[in-house]
Design a protein that fits this description.
It is a single chain. The chain is an alpha/beta fold. Helix content is 48%, strand content 8%. The chain has two domains: 176 residues, Glucose-6-phosphate isomerase like protein, domain 1 (Rossmann fold, 3-Layer(aba) Sandwich); 68 residues, Helicase, Ruva Protein, domain 3, CATH 1.10.8.1080. The longest helix has 20 residues. It is globular and about 65 Å long.
């Protein structure tokens, strides 16, 4: 009698187009990888309605003073850590606002810690989730025990839950309020989810976090007005952003930044509205950081 085995997830199946992978000339091999990569944005496009729900959940959580947690293992965890880390300089986000947890901890960022993904108990105890938080599990296979533990603990705490996987039939979907599942199909190299599945996760998390920050008012138009200007290059970029946003010349931008104590978005409001810094600051505070709303309140209308 043969032993029963669980069915393979989509990411673990063999790709019929690449069975001759080890005999292909270099250019043909690269062309195949590239052709498969081009299918990923289409798979992501198909799940945008689910992703929109996840974004709205994140906006609600952060607006209410709660946190967003990413939880993943291996490639998925590394991509999650990268996305969370880059929100700090790009949007001026506090490091404890969007937090990434990777199985195996910090050492797993540079050294494989594949066994850690099987530790469901570690996932369950990764953080003190609170009601109102949002916990986003990221797993290509849709089966990772570490992520299962985190989502189970999140549910028990009253936190919202999102699952990002590359398997629409993921058994962890039952633990998520919304499942974002681009069907990227079998990998060119069987089971190597750092490829198409990983690319999909990068696209999804980039879109998820960027849309969330835009909805929270951390931009003006398509400009990074909440960016941290921590070096000379970024301080120069801050001046260019301010000039792009307002049409003001450099001396006026420098003065407005000084009046705004270095707050680019406040300087935008000062320059466009003509209001003094204290009045512009209050309008921006009343608008919960949304520059267009603050400008409308100061000028009566704004486009």
């Amino acid at each position: 009698m043969s032993l029963s085995r669980p069915s393979l997830s989509r990411t673990e199946q063999r790709n019929p187009l690449s069975t001759g992978l080890d005999r292909m000339p270099t250019t043909e091999l690269l062309a195949l990888i590239n052709a498969e990569d081009r299918t990923v944005p289409l798979a992501v496009a198909a799940v945008l309605p689910s992703l929109a729900v996840a974004v709205d959940m994140a906006v609600a959580a952060l607006s209410a003073g709660h946190r967003v947690h990413y939880v993943g293992a291996g490639t998925s965890g590394r991509i999650a850590v990268l996305d969370a880390a880059e929100l700090i300089p790009t949007f001026g986000v506090s490091p404890d606002l969007v937090v990434a947890h990777i199985a195996g901890g910090v050492p797993a960022l540079t050294r494989p810690s594949e066994g850690a993904e099987d530790d469901e108990a570690a996932g369950a105890s990764v953080a003190a989730f609170e009601a109102g938080d949002l916990v986003v599990g990221v797993t290509a296979s849709g089966r990772t025990p570490y992520v299962r533990g985190a989502l189970t603990a999140a549910r028990a705490s009253g936190a919202g839950t999102v699952l990002i996987s590359a398997d629409p039939a993921s058994p962890l979907a039952a633990l998520a309020d919304v499942h974002v599942a681009p069907d990227t199909g079998p990998e060119v190299l069987t089971g190597s989810t750092r490829m198409k599945a990983g690319t999909a996760q990068k696209l999804i998390l980039n879109a998820f976090s960027t849309a969330t920050m835009v909805r929270l008012g951390r931009t003006y138009s398509n400009l990074m007005t909440d960016m941290l200007a921590a070096n000379a290059k970024l301080r120069d970029r801050r001046l260019r952003i301010l000039a792009e946003a307002t049409g003001a010349d450099e001396p006026a931008c420098v003065q407005a930044l000084a009046d705004a104590d270095g707050d680019t978005k406040l300087a935008v409001v000062i320059l466009i509205s003509g209001a003094p810094a204290d009045r512009a600051r209050q309008a921006l505070s009343d608008a919960r950081g949304h520059a267009h709303t603050a400008l409308t309140s100061l000028n009566g209308h704004h486009t």
